Amino acid sequence: MNKITLLVHCKDRSNIIATVTNFIAKNEGNIVYLDQHVDRDQNVFFMRLEAEFFHDSFSTESFKEDFKTNLAEVFEMKWRIYSSHKKPKMALFISKYDHCLYDLLGRYNSGELNLEIPFIISNHLDLKPIADSFKIPFYHVPVTKDTKPEAEKAQLELLEKFEIDFIVLARYMQIISPKLIEKYQNKIINIHHSFLPAFVGAKPYHSAFKRGVKIIGATSHYVTEELDAGPIIDQGVTRVSHTHSIEDLIAKGRDLEKIVLANAVKLHTNRKVMVYNNKTVIFS
Amino acid sequence: MNKITLLVHCKDRSNIIATVTNFIAKNEGNIVYLDQHVDRDQNVFFMRLEAEFFHDSFSTESFKEDFKTNLAEVFEMKWRIYSSHKKPKMALFISKYDHCLYDLLGRYNSGELNLEIPFIISNHLDLKPIADSFKIPFYHVPVTKDTKPEAEKAQLELLEKFEIDFIVLARYMQIISPKLIEKYQNKIINIHHSFLPAFVGAKPYHSAFKRGVKIIGATSHYVTEELDAGPIIDQGVTRVSHTHSIEDLIAKGRDLEKIVLANAVKLHTNRKVMVYNNKTVIFS
Amino acid sequence: MNKITLLVHCKDRSNIIATVTNFIAKNEGNIVYLDQHVDRDQNVFFMRLEAEFFHDSFSTESFKEDFKTNLAEVFEMKWRIYSSHKKPKMALFISKYDHCLYDLLGRYNSGELNLEIPFIISNHLDLKPIADSFKIPFYHVPVTKDTKPEAEKAQLELLEKFEIDFIVLARYMQIISPKLIEKYQNKIINIHHSFLPAFVGAKPYHSAFKRGVKIIGATSHYVTEELDAGPIIDQGVTRVSHTHSIEDLIAKGRDLEKIVLANAVKLHTNRKVMVYNNKTVIFS
Amino acid sequence: MNKITLLVHCKDRSNIIATVTNFIAKNEGNIVYLDQHVDRDQNVFFMRLEAEFFHDSFSTESFKEDFKTNLAEVFEMKWRIYSSHKKPKMALFISKYDHCLYDLLGRYNSGELNLEIPFIISNHLDLKPIADSFKIPFYHVPVTKDTKPEAEKAQLELLEKFEIDFIVLARYMQIISPKLIEKYQNKIINIHHSFLPAFVGAKPYHSAFKRGVKIIGATSHYVTEELDAGPIIDQGVTRVSHTHSIEDLIAKGRDLEKIVLANAVKLHTNRKVMVYNNKTVIFS
């Protein structure tokens, strides 16, 4: 059996759903999931569809070709088709904080995540033992002012060599270079330790403490050139009070960061995220 | 312009979506919303669809006829088609608590609710001034052991006379008679002041206090013959602690009850709820 | 029986609790509640205490005198003592939105709020019928560019005449004058329709929609000269998604605003809020 | 410097707070935290107090003696005094699920938990590699119908040998023997994968799925002889919908279980929990 996931967006107009579902039916596919959304402000149509094909002669490649010619070009669609046979490959970038790393690797180990982790990159050596205990190759790529270009080159080589599909910054404490951002557009997931857009930049828990907020948050988003301003994938919050010190906020925040980042990774790898106008459509 | 909402469920099989969307397209309709769900355990397919028809000759009645003959009977569907022209009519049953009443009437007044309220029934006179101030007819139908049959008769007459579509029990403190339940199946919405199935029956806040739970809840559900066991439409929760007395739980619970009940009413009137196997499918 | 609530803050040092509790004991009082907090960064001690006095000769006034001389001056305390006999008087400022008004008056009516509402002020006439139906005096004080000074004068006269203790802006759509803010420092409660400090200023739901956040919020705070920057009393949040339009955010936000504002009013009238360094200590 | 934490409960009466705080002052202690609660139904007074003693001659043991003679016996208090010098020792009981194990060990490793873990007991060998990678002794104590008495004996020997203070059942899939429960009263923390008292017993996620609830939960509680009926320490909840399969509920529940269990462990080790009448008082 072949199963594909189709993501589509285009200018809204009549009959798109009927045309696409017909196309699937003509190809002897069975639709097992369909969700759609229309942004009325922008007049844009979004659709996510999963279909199963049981005949032996089915080829994802020729299906893609047909779809492109007969539908995508006619409706001027932006589209992607994924085969369920191929697990996405994730590169993990880390620094010194271990909570998101433990959390993701724990989930990975227990089979909760539909992905492969060919390697971990860190600008520090501190967390190598954790990578080792989970038997995942660990590459130490230090980043200093002077070594930035070399570091970027080393990162890119690894990403290409292992055919990485997307990058997760699990509290990686370095700015990602514009070249990487451009190459992996909407494919670099960051976890920011605040309820964005409140408290952008460094030390958000300190700012939250100073402002005396009663709720703190964490935000996972795709990395864009503007810092902490990329499309938001997921957010989580928790209550705090005057009794909590900055250290308490940081500890409570760790739990948010873990869950919100893991959620974003799952949504991304299950092809449930579409990006448009610096915002996300998240299918259920 | 005519707009219809179609709700369908049937045994799952290939091509249902394509067939239905084609049928809409052939009738020159434009699909503006489609959501679907498959219960894999039960092998049941659910769909909700909104379509707009712009040609003058469109008639909801003949569309229904066509749909019935060409699709519903072929796929052995359970189905409903609603025209957006007709607002559902809601009867409010109340007793002595006013918080849900104020809340619903406040929302009604501000245009938040897509419905009509032809009348309010109460077994007590206490809240008549509120109904009066909102200018909604108020009927006093007392219920005692002896007058049960008469009360039921009076209720049924009012419901029929005003062609009521659904009933909301806004903390109505009487058991609904089996006859009413049968006549308005999945059309009587109750708000229960606990996180069901914890604390069924009377005095749930007292039970919650006694058990020392750290979270209390409220549950809106359709009324079935078994008490507090009908299909759940929505639930809400809030944290409590040892510092809260039973009175505090009751006060905190009121806020939950208001919001959860209003939510259920909105979901119901927007035709977003389907019931199957004593559970609900809630479309977004 | 006399019951007092004591709020105190001062530089932290040894033995404050023992000294104060001793003082209560010597005055034959029984402490029924005591909570305290130390801000370690600022080295400030906060305490809230409720005590009951059963002897006939007790006088709140002479107790205050004693407390001032024997404790407050020795420890250089900022302090307030409230008698439970006197309900705080609240002035409601409104404009055209009715949801917070209905909510507060509904709670007031049902006895949930420990306060009096001598009058409602509005710069529009739209909501007068609601004030009338709850039998609360309504004053129409229009505010235009030219009439600002007169309006402020009229407001101040009413506030003084009725010996108002604190003001609640229930979606009042005018900037409060610096004179009022100074006169009612930490006594004017506003509800802002965003999760502050995200989306300060006008149209926060539009900004939230544009940014594509997955959670929206509401914030109640004391009004200070800097807009939306005063000490936060309470915050609430709720999840949203790409399926929600700006109108949906506004509707969902209304429920947050009602509950967060009512919460702030209850905390304030129960003397549970202390302000320090533009932040609040909220006792439980 | 010596720091002690005092927990007290007794029949409520006048002057307890003043007497205790005076006692601390006379011993040249400085109170850094005091919280108290009165259960008005039961007329019981609860207090938690932290005090620091800076003089060299201070001895926790003689302080305890004094407290017992001069206060505890006079007021007929149930009381405990802990020195901050001694970290509580926790035994981890596990079976085959690894999520709570990874979570607790990750927190332990990063210094978030104020405790020691002398060993892990499991009735299966599956998770031994995880214990090994964290360098914590792992004891395999299989439990079958026939070996129950021996297993219990082996467990008790280990608990005694390592002077264990409390036990955490991190999804341990065996019933704890009455002997252990009696010996470690209010010292065995379990995590139950439902919002108790809804769905007691086995397979709660299956029951939640069947009932069609819109919110699922997890509950940490002290183990008592009656299954899933002990005093509740903490609870957490998360929203679910018809789109979630039982497997989805289980996956979402894992995140709740981790956080709720970790919370309970932190509250217990920070001496913030008092048990009375099968309920908990949780100090902040």
TrEMBL record, chains A, B, C, D:
GO molecular function: formyltetrahydrofolate deformylase activity
Top-level taxonomic group: Bacteria
Alphabetically ordered keywords of this record: Hydrolase, One-carbon metabolism, Purine biosynthesis
ACT domain boundaries: 5-83
UniProt GO BP: 'de novo' IMP biosynthetic process; one-carbon metabolic process
Cited InterPro entries: ACT-like_dom_sf, ACT_dom, Formyl-FH4-Hydrolase_C, Formyl_transf_N, Formyl_transf_N_sf, PurU, PurU_ACT
Pathway participation: Purine metabolism; IMP biosynthesis via de novo pathway; formate from 10-formyl-5,6,7,8-tetrahydrofolate: step 1/1
Family the UniProt entry places it in: Belongs to the PurU family.
Protein name per the record: Formyltetrahydrofolate deformylase
Organism per entry: Siansivirga zeaxanthinifaciens CC-SAMT-1
Lineage per the UniProt record: Bacteria, Pseudomonadati, Bacteroidota, Flavobacteriia, Flavobacteriales
